Amino acid sequence: MGREQVSAAINAIETLIATLDTWVLVFAGFVAIGVVGEAILGVWHWRLDGRLRDLRHTEAQLHESEIANANATAATANERAAALEKDAAQARAEQERLKTQISWRRITKEQHDEIVSNLRGRRLAITIKWPASDPEAGVFADDIGKTLRDAGMTLSGEPFISDTPVFGLGVSKMPRGDQVPSDDWIALADAFKKAGWIFGLAEPAERLTITVGSKKPPF
Q: How many CB atoms are located within 10 Å of the residue 169 CB?
């Protein structure tokens, strides 16, 4: 190889080395940029990750708060519904009470059957009295009379006029104050009690007498 050829080869290699040095610097710059970019992106990622955790924690708290509020609202609504139902029940009970107080007295089928069952086989002679001016008492007396006839009793009816009001249901006392109640009186009183009727003692009478007074006013 001649001198010129050696010089040309040296120049070519030097040029190549210079080019390689340039690319090394270029790639070194890229590496530096990558390292810096990685560091920047890593810090950014770390900060975003922390922010995300905070937001998720806030979201969980809001969710728990919403659940608590919903439960409180539901509890309040349940309490309100219970209060309204209680008020409605009291109103219905009061309505039924007033209805019972205002409605006319009648004998139910159960009371009819109870009295007939307890008096059947007896032959009682009974007088029924009621205020002539009170249609409600008259209807109730008629119900009692029908029930006693169904039980086989012998009845007579006597509407009466009184200067003082007579209330409720009464069974006559025995004719004498020291007289022991008769079997007929006891049987009739026992039948009335088993039917759930409340009665008092009316004036003494020779014949077993039921006095059907007026219904007590509700107020």
A: 20
Residue 181 CB contacts under 8 Å (≥ 6 apart), including other chains: 174, 189
C-beta atoms surrounding 172 within 10 Å: 20
> With DSSP H G I counted as helix, E B as strand and the rest as coil, what are the percentages for the chain, rounded to 5?
65, 15, 25
Strand pairing category for 208-212 and 125-131: parallel
Does the pTM surpass 0.90? The reply is no
> Burial letters for 131-161: b for 16+ Cβ neighbours within 10 Å, e otherwise?
beebebbbebbbbbbebbeebebeeebeeee
CA distances for 39 relative to 26, 29, 36, 96, 143, angstroms: 20, 15, 5, 84, 105
3-state SS assignment for residue 43: helix
- The per-residue pLDDT for range 32-84, each reduced to its tens digit, is 676 666 777 777 777 777 777 887 888 888 888 888 888 888 888 888 888 88
Type of residue numbered 99: K
Dihedral, CA atoms, 136, 139, 141, 147, nearest 10 degrees? Answer: -140
192 within 8 A of 199, measured Cβ to Cβ:
yes
**Helix, strand, or coil (residue 201):** strand
